[in-house]
């Protein structure tokens, strides 16, 4: 019996990625948004790593034809961070533009940032106008989330 | 007509022969054969026929010349066929279902009915669908006739037409398309007729107006287009200036300004010092709405490290604003932003100076770097009611069409209420209470050029940005067009909103303009 159990025990791995966080970070930095979100569900370590904004920073402007304006980082951070920028604005914008084959041709950075700024403003409570509802949800960006009416 | 022709001609003889005890004796003496049991029904249908004939006067001649008339002595049949003629001119009457299913009805029709039952069911279905389309088209025609009667002052006829239209409205799907638009226009006509006082056009509550405006902002891209295009022009005009001052003619929630603040923050060379003066109506409950908005904008500006100063100017009408209230400093670049505000100045009170001239002259005296003007692209300021009505019908039908693409509730419904209030103001109000005096871009161009302004081309960046904004909007029907340096946004090639930019033509040095208040140029 004990022999059988010993036979079933897997051999101990020589290399565990979780022991080498710097390599893990390098790998995760190169993933696309959806895969990154999936990676966040793997284990607690991966989850905490993927919550670092710097990971999303490299994702955000990967496909832009021209480099983003300098001084953009403090502004993005002040308005909510790269992860939020990606999830709320960039991802739907890129999806929409891909549908029309424009993703790599059009410089959407300024527009995306402006929309992100409007979102921040609304979260401050500046949007107002929702009857009886708290303006915690950014409603002016809802049009980005709706499916394209083809 | 086919199944009836043979039927009715023989039916009268058939019914005469076998059914005489049931025919009403008094009417029979006058030559009409009506069953006693159907007297009330026939009477109602006669009344209906009279209503329809009175209101469809232009169709009577067609009935008189084209149609085969059924034997009028068989009154019941005749009334039904006439009603069928006037309400569904082309298709076999669906009133077939209304015919009482007695065994004692004429043999011919009875046999035909049994044979054609399936066929008729299909026909009824088709004719119901056609009914709706027909009814929609009829509604439009009736709306136009009603508007003409309204202009002529034929108010009693207008009232009965409104009733008739409301009956027709039941047949149409009022949740979308022409039914919905027609519903709002019928409502506007009846308001104009029955309660022409100025208090008709929605409430004056500033809070309500703000909420509706906000929902209009979210439900469709017109306001977003306006904001982004104006911001681009202002951004380009402010290039190289370290002290800039934006004057917003209608602050509302200040949704236009976060994007400008962010764009200025990212400006190569660093952001300028931004002053924003927001004009808005007084808030009734003692809240200082302008100040609250100003505080939020200041907080946002602080987050992105832009030096920001806000000032609120409370005025219920734009012509009440005096330039000294704006406290324009010398050496700062001024931008004036008017999103759908200038048309409110177009009312010409015969005894007083033109509000438009007053405002335009003090705008000039401020010597702004740029003036951004966004207006509805429609001619709703024509003196004749019928012209306004026709133009409004086409304009707002297109706008409602474009709104269909929005799936967000309750934003869409509230946006519709916002539009409905505009419609009511255009159609029901007169004199100083009619503020929605929209004029097309051509007229604005002329007016502004004659008042000492020259156009500034909006540039390709604005166009690209507007196109991109529309790509992000899910509906594919919006189109951006560039016309002589101005941008228009429309639905399916009908422009609905136009954005343009202007600059004051500098005065000749010898001419002095009279200025109001203490100004520094």
TrEMBL record, chain A:
This is F-box domain. It comes from the Eukaryota. PANTHER family: F-BOX PROTEIN SNE. GO terms for biological process: gibberellic acid mediated signaling pathway; regulation of gibberellic acid mediated signaling pathway. GO terms for cellular component: SCF ubiquitin ligase complex. Pfam families: F-box-like (PF12937). The lineage of its organism: Eukaryota, Viridiplantae, Streptophyta, Embryophyta, Tracheophyta. Residues 22-62 form the F-box domain.
From TrEMBL, chain B:
Residues 213-278 are annotated as: VHIID. One of its GO terms (biological process) is gibberellic acid mediated signaling pathway. It is found in: Nucleus. Residues 39-66 form a coiled coil. Residues 334-425 are annotated as: PFYRE. Gene3D superfamilies: Transcriptional regulator DELLA, N-terminal domain. InterPro entries: DELLA_N_sf, TF_DELLA_N, TF_GRAS. Pfam families: DELLA (PF12041), GRAS (PF03514). A motif (LXXLL motif) lies at residues 342-346. Belongs to the GRAS family. DELLA subfamily. The DELLA motif is required for its GA-induced degradation. Transcriptional regulator that acts as a repressor of the gibberellin (GA) signaling pathway. Probably acts by participating in large multiprotein complexes that repress transcription of GA-inducible genes. This is DELLA protein.
